[in-house]
Amino acid sequence: MRRQHIFIKYVAIVAIMLAAGALVQGAEPSSSSVHKYTAEVAKFAAEPAPAPGGILMVGSSIFRKWTNCVQDLAPLPVRNRAFGGSRTEDQLFFFDQIVPSARAALVVWYCGSNDINGKKTPEAILQNTKEWLKRTRTALPQARILLVSVIRAPQKRTAGLLPQVDEVNKDLAKLAGAFPGVSYIDVNPALETADGAPVAACYVSDNLHLTDEAYRRMTSVLRPVMEKEWKAAQAAKP
Hints:
Layout: H1 2-25, H2 31-36, H3 38-46, E1 55-59, H4 61-64, H5 69-72, E2 78-80, H6 88-93, H7 95-98, E3 106-110, H8 113-117, H9 122-139, E4 144-148, H10 154-158, H11 162-178, E5 182-185, H12 212-235
Parallel strand pairs: 1-2, 1-3, 3-4, 4-5
Helix pairs in contact: 9-11
């Protein structure tokens, strides 16, 4: 009985420590933040250390599933550390494992879509993104940052979430104007018809994630901006 009592106390202490760790990291303490992506993020540490001055792509599954991004964006020195179906709170929780060690000159961000699906408000998404920007600026003072718009996917339209998507994208554009060295790009026009309808060939069966055609279109608009921002970062080196 005594052993059982000690064990219960030990479990309680560990649980409190985990929750406190989440709060210190600035993320909302949730089971997904503490457990869900730990193994996936740990794999980044096992990779060879990237050369300083490259490009880091961070965010959720739109980037994670872009498995050909290194080839598509070559010769830009791209490293993709997007993970899972992450939300902005997960990016904060795992920040120290992802961003500082990349030693990147340009960081490209895509996140917020899963927050919207999870009924997070645009205001909450804005606050988490702003916190992430501040941490990135502290960890990589010379790096430039490119914020990519949340995609106006058919799934968002069916769920009635387009107003939230549009509000988040407006917030991202405003953040880019408020932070030195931060830019914003809207990739949605490349994935829509002239009248703003989604191009069906750009989406897989879940009407959320992207096909090779969509990534080809994204590359056509992202590459020039990434090249410009990366070259600007290189030119600003002391």
